[in-house]
Each structure stands twice: as structure tokens, then as C-alpha cells.
Amino acid sequence: MADHGYETGRLNLPFVGISTFAKKPYVQDWSAIRADAAILGAPYDFGTQFRPGARFGPRAVREASTLFSFGHAGAYDHEDDATYLGPEVTIVDIGDADIVHTDTVKSHANIETGVRAILDAGALPVVIGGDHSINIPCVKAFRGRGDIHVLQIDAHLDFVDERHGVRMGHGNPMRRAAEQPHVTGLTQLGIRNVSSTAREGYEAARRMGSDILSVRQVRSLGTEAVLGRIPPGARLYVTIDIDAFCPSIAPGTGTPSHGGFLYYEVLELMQGVARTHEIVGLDLVEVAPDYDPSGSTAILAAQLLLNTLGFIFHARKG
């Protein structure tokens, strides 16, 4: 009889099977999360002001993440002489929050419920959007769980208070975060060019505790100096808008802005901040895959998330 290898476990190559994030186990029952980190999809893009499509971000990032799912022994990085995300780190995928089309309040509430379930389980919430408005329920889910500082990596300030009655769109999340009593301040990196936020928004952001740096300012200061501006000892919630990157490497987004970060600039910030601060939550938003037929934007997002998770848990172990 031929040996199909089942006695020693399936080979389970990246193109085989169901596309959970990094092919991690799927947990349907949100009361039964047992993991160090849990992935939640938030396929909501009703807050978009121009090009829609980020509702398909979670699906695309999950599929792209299977590219990095070889084996179970973790990923060895020869530059760091470290193995990241080995078998000691447990990650599960809890699927998507239920989105009710055109109903912002109910959709956001369902996202918040998912994040709260992850926090109640003692796991790190990792949310894949969706447009940037999904950050509003994510940050709200931390109410009653201690103070947090928000680290935003983005092309746009997203600090609009209200526009034609809209307060929960993707131009509003950082303003809504700054209003939360448990948010002690924001560090906003990569902000550049013509913004959806008017001058008054920038002034309000600074009054409410924001430190705002453009891509060129981050490059001029350098990674260590930027890390030094984040309040020491702060518990960090990290929100990454894929349009923080230059659209030459991440075109698959609704509001591209040239002059953005390159991959290693953000990667080194993530590695540094995982070393210097406790990261208590993470979201990555605005991947709109249909604007990038090559799929490279989703691959970039998946690669960044997996590396960031590796840095977080390596720092915790250390």
C-alpha cells in the first residue's frame, strides 16, 4: 500500500485547504477562544468617502496569509537569529463580525462584540478591515480595561469631527478615539499631502494629545527617535491603514497617497515598538483588493501582520 504521509501528518501546503488566517484553527464559538491571539475580520466599508471595496479586505488578506503557512515550527529570521511564531504561540481565526448592510450602528456593535470576546478570553485582538471606521468599535471595546495610547500609521489624520452629520465614517475614527476616556493620547505617523482633515482638525488633534509626524519627518528623525516620542510605559493599540504605504507597493486601497512608507520603515517601527511597549490590540484596514490585480497589497498586509505578531510574542517571551 502506498504511504500517503497521513501517518506523520498532512503536508498541508499553502494552496491546499481553507483560507483561515495563516491556516490557523477556526473557532466559531466566541465563548470558547483559547489562544494568545485571535483574528477577527471586519468586512465593513460603508464609511468610505470615495472608492469602496475594503469589505473584501479580510478575505484577501486571509488568502494571502496562506503564503506564509509552511509548517508548524515557526519562522527563523537569520538577521535577528530568532524563530518567530513557533508552536508556543497559539493563534486562532474567529471568522468575521456579522455586517448588516447599510446599518453602521449594528455593524459596529457586532465588531465591538467580537473584540470584547477576544479580550475576555485574555487573547490579543487582531482585526482585519474593512474601512478605517472599524477602528471606532475596536477602541470602544477597551472601555473598562485600563488606559491605552493609540499608535496610528496612516496617510490621513482621520480626525474629522462631523461632516454633514456623519460621525462614524472612515474620516472620523481618530477623533472618536481621542474622545474616549481610556485613550490617553495618539501618535500619528505617515500623515502627508492633501488630507481629508482640515486645519482645524489638526489643531484639535494636537489639543487632544496627538503627536503628528509625516513620512519625511519620520525618516528625518529615525526609528529610535520616533519610538522615543511615544509615552514610556503606555499600553499601545496599533492601527495600520494600508494607505500609509506608498501606492507603488500597495495600490489596492481606496484612497492612495503617493510618498508613503516603504515596507522596512514600518516593519522596523513595529519591531521597535514591540520591544519598548506592551501592544494590547492591533487592526489593519483599507485593503481593497480589487484595485490591485497583482494581489501584492494583500500579501504586504499579511506579511506585516504576521511579522508584527512575531515581534510581539518574541518580546513577551524575552
Q: How would you sum up this structure, described in words?
A:
The chain has 318 residues and is α/β, with parallel strands linked by helices. It has a single domain (13-317), classed as 3-Layer(aba) Sandwich (Arginase, Chain A), CATH 3.40.800. The protein is built from nine helices and ten strands. It has helices at residues 57-65, 104-120, 135-140, 173-179, 199-207, 215-221, 223-229, 263-276, 296-317, and strands spanning 37-42, 75-77, 82-84, 91-96, 124-129, 148-153, 183-189, 210-213, 235-241, 278-285. The strands form two sheets. An eight-stranded parallel sheet has the order 4-1-5-10-9-6-7-8, sandwiched between helices. The chain has a two-stranded antiparallel ribbon with strand order 2-3. A hairpin with a 4-residue loop joins strand 2 and strand 3. Helix 1 crosses helix 9 and helix 8 (263-276) packs parallel to helix 9. The longest helix has 22 residues, at 296-317. The radius of gyration is 19 Å and the shape is globular. Residues 1-6 have low confidence and may be disordered.
Attribute tags:
alpha/beta, Arginase, Chain A, 8-stranded parallel β-sheet, two-stranded antiparallel sheet, 9 helices, globular
Characterize this entry briefly.
The protein is of the alpha/beta class. The chain contains nine helices and ten strands.
